[in-house]
Amino acid sequence: MNASGNTLRFPGRLGLGTWKMGESRSAHAREVAAVTRALEVGYRLFDTAEMYADGAAERILGEALRSFGAAQRPRLCIVSKVLPENASRTGTVRACEASIERIGCDYLDLYLLHWRGSHPFAETLRGFDELLRRGLIRAFGVSNFDVDDLAGWLEDEKRVGVAGSTHCNQLDYSLDTRQIEAQLLAWQRARDIQTMAYSPLGRGALTRHPLLLQLARARGASAAQIALAWCLREPDVVAIPKSADPKRVEENWQADGLRLSSDELEQLDRAFPPPRSRRRS
Ligand SMILES: NC(=O)c1ccc[n+]([C@@H]2O[C@H](COP(=O)([O-])OP(=O)(O)OC[C@H]3O[C@@H](n4cnc5c(N)ncnc54)[C@H](OP(=O)(O)O)[C@@H]3O)[C@@H](O)[C@H]2O)c1
After folding, report:
1. What are the pLDDT digits (tens) for 88-118?
2. Mean pLDDT of the chain
3. 126, part of any domain
4. Residue 2: exposure state from Cβ atoms within 10 A (0-12, 13-18, ≥19)
5. What is the atom index within ligand 1 of the atom nearest the CA of 224?
6. Is residue 158 part of a domain?
7. Residue 24: which residues within 8 A CB-CB, separation 6 or more?
8. Mean pLDDT of the 81-93 span
9. What CATH number corresponds to the domain at position 64?
10. What's the DSSP call for residue 50?
11. In angstroms, rounded to a whole number, what is the distance separating the alpha carbons of residues 90 and 83?
């Protein structure tokens, strides 16, 4: 346990995203195969949400996990999210129970509020508190929160007296979306809140970018691996690229071993400049 009371540690720096999975019947077998391949090559962190294909992405994850074996469950980190419109106290609990049912696991390792909605934070936090106490989640967090949202959320967390503390903020972070570097990244670091980078491939666009393709060619790597290695240059950032292609799932996994040189990082900074104001935390 660290100073803020968080006990969850992510198993590795890369996880598999599942947004857009479960949307078409014809893609089903390939999507299950992609998640299965992820398990085979070593991914242990999986990100999903009740929103993704109305729960069908959670079912795909569950289908792949079943073949992995119940004994391996403690080594996995399964993340799902409650939709803001469901995030009342009782709605949060119901949504989590439904996600667990669809995935076919007994508990979630991390449960996030998908983005800020109209339910008061205290309500959602009371729902998270009940889920923690019942052992249905190991940790909780948020997604798409800025510094002001997070400051208010943390105040309410104290006020409500939740059994745990906010573990993570899942945020849009990639070479072409660097806004969190202005303030949020350092602010979270100072409070021991983990940054989980979503859309680390720029939703696929970075895998076609000329500079990334050029840097990749020179190293015998792929542009996707360069984009992921860039996210992982921050020692405490975890990234969750999505692919429904078993070969790409494996290719993305190899990015963990890639360290970009200062020359490569400078070239990338010139092409994708960091935000101007890096305010203090
Ligand atoms: N909290 C939030 O609000 C939020 C928002 C967005 C995303 N997320 C989470 O973050 C995950 C990742 O983000 P994302 O899905 O938006 O975008 P992403 O991971 O940046 O990019 C996914 C796209 O890149 C393609 N791709 C993957 N690996 C590739 C490779 N090696 N070479 C070429 N193309 C490749 C994928 O196509 P194929 O599948 O065909 O390979 C897909 O079109 C999501 O799946 C979801 O779990 C969370």
Report:
1. 999 999 999 999 999 999 999 999 999 999 9
2. 95
3. yes
4. exposed
5. 31
6. yes
7. none
8. 98
9. 3.20.20.100
10. T
11. 13
Catalytic residue among 52, 111, 173, 198: 52
pLDDT for 128 beyond 80: yes
Please check whether residue 9 lies inside any domain of the structure: no
Domain span including residue 149: 16-204+236-244
CA of 196 to the centre of ligand 1 (A): 13
Which token pair is 252? 């993305």
Q: Distance between CA atoms of 44 and 46, rounded to whole angstroms? A: 7
Active site residue 111: no
Compute φ and ψ for 145, nearest 5 degrees: -95, 140
Instruction: Please state, in angstroms and rounded to a whole number, the distance separating the CA atoms of residues 38 and 20.
Output: 17
Structure-token match 């991390």, residue found:
110
Alpha-carbon span 30 to 228, nearest angstrom: 23
In the reported structure, the alpha carbon of residue 85 is separated from the centroid of ligand 1 by a whole-number distance in angstroms of 24
Structure-block tokens of residue 106: 């007994």
pTM to 2 decimal places:
0.96
* Residue 68 within any structural domain of the chain: yes
Give the helix ranges, DSSP H, for the chain: 28-41, 56-66, 89-103, 121-133, 147-160, 184-190, 210-219, 223-232, 246-253, 262-271
Q: Using CB atoms within 10 A of its CB, is residue 72 exposed (0-12), middle (13-18) or buried (19+)?
A: exposed
Residue the block writes with tokens 């949060």: 92
Indicate which atom in ligand 1 lies nearest the CA of residue 249: 28
Structurally, how many domains does the chain consist of? 1
pLDDT classification of 276: cutoffs 50, 70, 90: confident
Closest atom of ligand 1 to CA, residue 198: 10
